[in-house]
Write a structure and sequence with these properties.
The structure holds two protein chains of two kinds.
Chain A: E1 9-13, H1 17-28, E2 32-36, H2 41-48, E3 51-52, H3 56-62, E4 65-68, H4 75-84, E5 88-92, H5 99-112, E6 116-119, H6 126-136, E7 143-153, H7 164-167, H8 169-186, E8 189-197, E9 209-217, E10 222-230, E11 237-244, E12 247-252, H9 283-295, H10 305-324, E13 328-329
Parallel strand pairs in A: 1-2, 1-4, 2-3, 4-5, 5-6, 7-10
Antiparallel strand pairs in A: 7-11, 8-9, 8-13, 9-10, 11-12
Chain B: E1 3-8, H1 15-23, E2 28-33, H2 47-54, E3 58-59, H3 62-67, E4 72-75, H4 82-91, E5 95-99, H5 106-119, E6 123-126, H6 133-143, E7 150-159, H7 172-175, H8 179-183, H9 185-195, E8 200-208, E9 222-229, E10 234-238, E11 251-259, E12 262-266, E13 272-277, E14 280-285, H10 290-305, H11 322-341, E15 345-346
Parallel strand pairs in B: 1-2, 1-4, 2-3, 4-5, 5-6, 7-10
Antiparallel strand pairs in B: 7-11, 8-9, 8-15, 9-10, 11-12, 13-14
The chains are: A alpha/beta, B alpha/beta.
InterPro entries (chain B): Gfo/Idh/MocA-like_OxRdtase_N (IPR000683), Gfo/Idh/MocA_Oxidoreductases (IPR051450), GFO_IDH_MocA-like_dom (IPR055170), NAD(P)-bd_dom_sf (IPR036291)
Organism (chain B): Kribbella turkmenica
GO molecular function, one term (chain B): nucleotide binding
């Protein structure tokens, strides 16, 4: 354990898919983890050697700060409880499921003097970091057209993902990463246009669904985010193509990782929903270390609560665009959630 | 029986490929004309010099070209001048292969289809990527249901700006626009072929001019076009001229087709040997020349149909036909209007 994180106790709230990656990172950082979850805390604790906290209150009392990895629909409630207890919060994306809730969380955190860091982990994936640095260094000139894609084996065949009221649907759940990337790389967003096929009907997401969102940016750049909940068993993939006035940058996770395998008997399954099998230092570890160090008084991390809220704003503008069939001007878009 | 094939104009860069392929066919006679070539601001040769370079016969005027009595005319003029030449060809009783896009305005495209229909002439649009082996395999897989229900497509047709060889590509009047006009239609055609001619219902386009500002270009150089089709399909096409001037190859076409049972990606121009040479990255294409199969399809249909007969339908209507050209032109036209208004356009 690094000296700056000595004696750290993290309160982990939730025990689902992403919890495994976070626990791995916290263990690698030498932290003590106290887990509380409505479901699955015991199994997670047994597997990784964690302590279980029977209630949210005891978990909050025990922890130096909390790491919220619950289903999206509970992010707001859990985060507000942590803020009320005076605990700093790391919260999985999306920060909340509505722009209004994100802004409410930020206001509560500010009032309580508590920090909230949304886990937009793609900002810690080396390819995306390298591309942003190259753009900032001027290596491809002014960004003209940027495309981002992300596809996963659909989680909407069952469980809470299918219920858009609980997951937010494919844009809020999956594309929110690339909406954040588009902002990170191309700057503030001027307009949002979104389409999805098949459409969401009566609050139920189709199992297999694609969303395409086009953004125009204040910088003059245009960008496109494509998110797909693909056929069950589809390997997780992401990537980008960025064209600038002086060059281009391209990355595809399937082609550019430096490792490819073609194994038969006993082959491990590939990533389906979450890019867990990254090579080199886990981006989840890089992210959680940066957050923890910041919460211990180190430099502020590369992603802030306002970035998480901005990504949710964009996802909500996308929803408004789909509902109205119109382009949403972010200048007129009410960040509390109502479409202009 | 030898076919008489006229090549009308060398304005489009593809004319060179068609000329060399047609010129090498034992059962075809070729005659060319490029009367506007002399006044074009292009650095390279046009007109008689270019014909000599290509090794094909040449006449100075379109009057002489059409008076020759061609069985078929290949129109490779500037986009805005397609209509006049196609109508002349139809009036002369010739079948037509028209370079893409069909026209710059929907009304022109409709008039061209009407003229060819009235003359009993074939009107085929030069979309060669349709004939590429990866696309044929993709289409067979879609038709066999291997992808399940297809619900989304991403297409890209990114390339170098066609600026140095032929300057009219960046002339809004002659080309009809910039990258939106030049590079949306290939992917739109491939999607049209996969769906059996689904019609676009709503089109949104964002475009900008960030790329190639150093060349003083005033048409759009970057664009993203999103299309909702009447069968529900969703597609986005990146039509940007975003391959840098020093890129190892001109560009390419990419299509990702997603269905409920999986997805297929194709890049018909990708097959190549890579490496380095003294100027940097080497790129040796090894894919087929798709023009060969496209021209064979066109000329086969011309041969089987015989001379165009007014009031009759050609015996063989090769695809992609004028109707495909018009559907894809409607997408371009809607994209242009959307890029101007900033809102989607309903068709």
């Amino acid at each position: 354990m690094s000296q700056e994180l000595a004696g750290l106790t993290v309160g982990l709230i939730g025990a689902g898919n992403i919890a495994h990656l976070h626990v791995g990172a916290w263990k690698a950082l030498g932290a003590r983890v106290v887990v509380h979850s409505v479901e699955g805390a015991g199994e997670l604790a047994d597997h990784y050697g964690l302590e279980v906290s029977a209630s949210l209150d005891t978990c909050l009392a025990d922890a130096e700060f909390v790491d919220v990895v619950t289903p999206s629909v509970t992010h707001k409630e859990v985060t507000l409880a942590a803020i009320k207890a005076g605990r700093n919060v790391i919260c999985e994306k999306p920060l909340t499921l509505t722009a209004a809730d994100s802004h409410e969380v930020i206001a509560a955190a500010d009032a309580a003097g508590v920090r909230v860091y949304p886990a937009h982990v793609v900002r810690y994936f080396p390819a995306y970091v390298a591309a942003r640095q190259a753009v900032r260094d001027g290596r491809i000139g002014d960004v003209a057209v940027a495309r981002f894609f992300r596809q996963a084996s659909s989680p909407a065949g069952g469980g809470w993902y299918r219920d858009v009221a609980r997951s937010g649907g494919v844009i809020m759940d999956l594309m929110v990463h690339d909406l954040d990337q588009a902002r990170w790389l191309c700057g503030d967003v001027r307009t949002v246009y979104a389409v999805q096929n098949p459409p969401t009907v009566e609050g139920q997401s189709p199992v297999n669904v694609a969303a395409h969102v086009t953004l125009t940016h204040e910088s003059g750049a245009i960008s496109h985010c494509r998110a797909t909940w693909a056929a069950a068993g589809t390997t997780f993939q992401s990537g980008f193509d960025v064209a600038g006035s002086a060059g281009v940058l391209k990355y595809a996770s399937a082609a550019d990782s430096g490792y490819a395998e073609e194994l038969q008997d006993g082959a491990p399954a590939g990533d389906l929903l979450i890019p867990a099998n990254t090579l080199g230092e886990s981006p989840y570890l890089t992210q959680l270390r940066e957050f923890a160090v910041a919460l211990r008084g180190g430099p502020e991390p590369r992603v802030q609560a306002a970035d998480g809220a901005a990504a949710v704003d964009l996802a909500e503008a996308a929803r408004a665009s789909m509902e109205t069939g119109r382009v949403i001007d972010m200048k007129d878009f009410d960040p509390t959630g109502a479409a202009a | 029986m030898s076919l008489k094939i006229a090549l009308a104009s060398f304005a489009h860069t593809h004319a060179a490929s068609y000329a060399s392929l047609l010129g090498g066919m034992p059962d075809a006679e070729v005659l060319s004309a490029d009367p506007d070539g002399a006044s074009a601001p292009d650095a390279g040769p046009r007109g008689a010099d270019f014909a000599a370079q290509l090794g094909i016969p040449y006449v100075d005027s379109y009057d002489e070209l059409f008076a020759w009595g061609p069985d078929a005319v290949v129109v490779t003029s500037e986009n805005a001048l397609h209509r006049e030449l196609v109508e002349r060809a139809a009036a002369a009783g010739a079948h037509v292969l028209c370079e893409k896009p069909l026209a710059t305005e929907v009304a022109d495209g409709e008039a061209m289809i009407a003229a060819c229909e009235a003359a009993g002439a074939i009107l085929m649009v030069a979309y060669p990527v349709r004939f590429s082996p990866p696309y044929l395999r993709l289409r067979a897989s879609v038709e066999a249901g291997l992808l399940g229900d297809v619900f989304a497509v991403l297409g890209t047709n990114n390339g170098k700006i066609p600026y140095a060889a032929r300057q009219w590509f960046t002339d809004a009047k002659l080309a009809g626009g910039g990258a939106l006009v030049d590079h949306t239609v290939h992917c739109a055609d491939l999607i049209d072929g996969l769906t059996g001619g689904a019609s676009p219902k709503r089109v949104y386009a964002a475009a900008n001019r960030v790329l190639h500002q150093d060349k003083g270009v005033d048409v759009e150089t970057g664009g993203l076009v999103t299309i909702n089709y009447d069968n529900g399909l969703l597609a986005t096409i990146d039509c940007s001229w975003s391959v840098p001037d020093n890129g190892p190859t001109w560009g390419g076409v990419y299509l990702q087709v997603t269905g409920t049972n999986g997805s297929v990606e194709i890049e018909p121009f990708l097959p190549h040997v890579s490496g380095t040479d003294p100027s940097g990255e080497a790129y040796l294409p090894i894919h087929d020349n798709f023009d060969v199969s496209m021209l064979a399809t066109f000329l086969g249909a011309v041969r089987e149909s015989g001379r165009a007969n007014a009031g009759t339908t050609p015996a063989v209507v090769p695809q992609p036909d004028g109707a495909v050209g018009l559907r894809t032109l409607r997408i371009v036209d809607a994209a242009r209007r959307s890029a101007l208004s900033g809102q989607p356009v309903d068709l």
